[in-house]
Specification:
Strand 1 and strand 2 form a beta hairpin. Helices cover 19% and strands 38% of the residues. It has 182 residues and is α+β, with helices and mostly antiparallel strands. The strands form 4 sheets. A 3-stranded antiparallel beta sheet has the order 1-2-3, with helices on one face. It has a 3-stranded antiparallel beta sheet with strand order 4-5-6, with helices on one face. The chain folds into 2 domains: 86 residues, no CATH class; 71 residues, no CATH class.
Length: 182
C-alpha cells in the first residue's frame, strides 16, 4: 500500500452508532398542522419524526427508535424509548396509535388454499381478521415463513404484511395446506 492510500485511510473516519436511551419524561410528541408526528425534546422541535419498533415481532412497546429527517433528507436517530410504559398516558396513546397504524398486520385465522403459478409467485387464499383475502407472494421462501416454531409471517407483493402468532391454533385443513410451504 502506497503512502497516499495510507493517508486516505487515516483520514477516513466512521461514526460509531451508540444506543441512546431517551428519558421518556422529556419527550413531548404531537401532531403538527400537516398531521405528521413531531417531537419537542430538549428545547428543539423535530418535525415528521419516524418511530420504528426495533424488535417488531417480539415486542410492541419496548425499544422504539425515534428518528427525524435532517436538512440532507437523511433520517438520523435521536434515540430509543426503552419502554413505552415510561411515557405519560397521553403520550403512550399517541405513540401507540402511530405504531399500530404503521405496523398494521391482519392476523391469518384460516388457510383455504395455496396455488403456485410456477413463475416464482404463490397465491394464498386466507381468512384474516380483516376478511377473506388472496395474497400474492413473490419468493415464498423469504416472504412466507415461520420466524419462530409457531409465528408465521407473510409479506405480499404490494408490501402488506400478515401474521399468525401461533400456527398451532389453525384448523387441521389449514395446517395441511401450509405443510409444504413452511
Amino acid at each position: 500500500m502506497d503512502n497516499s492510500a495510507k493517508k486516505e485511510l487515516e483520514l477516513e473516519k466512521f461514526e460509531i452508532d451508540r444506543l441512546v436511551i431517551l428519558d421518556a419524561s422529556k419527550l413531548k410528541f404531537y401532531k403538527d398542522q400537516s398531521g405528521f408526528m413531531s417531537l419537542e425534546f430538549e428545547g428543539k422541535d423535530y418535525f415528521n419524526v419516524r418511530l420504528t419498533r426495533l424488535t417488531p415481532f417480539y415486542s410492541k412497546t419496548t425499544y422504539i427508535s425515534v428518528a427525524y429527517e435532517n436538512d440532507e433528507r437523511e433520517f438520523k436517530e435521536i434515540g430509543v424509548i426503552k419502554d413505552m410504559k415510561e411515557l405519560s398516558e397521553e403520550q403512550y396513546k399517541l405513540v401507540d396509535d402511530y405504531l399500530e397504524y404503521k405496523y398494521y398486520m391482519p392476523e391469518i385465522t384460516k388457510v383455504h388454499s395455496i396455488k403456485d403459478n410456477s413463475r416464482g409467485f404463490i397465491f394464498v387464499d386466507v381468512e384474516t381478521t380483516s376478511g377473506r383475502k388472496t395474497i400474492c407472494i413473490r419468493d415464498w421462501y423469504s416472504n412466507f415463513r415461520l420466524l419462530t416454531d409457531k409465528f408465521l409471517y407473510a409479506y405480499d407483493v404490494d408490501g402488506n404484511k400478515y401474521f399468525c402468532d401461533d400456527i398451532g391454533k389453525l384448523d387441521r385443513k389449514s395446517l395441511a395446506v401450509l405443510e409444504i410451504y413452511i
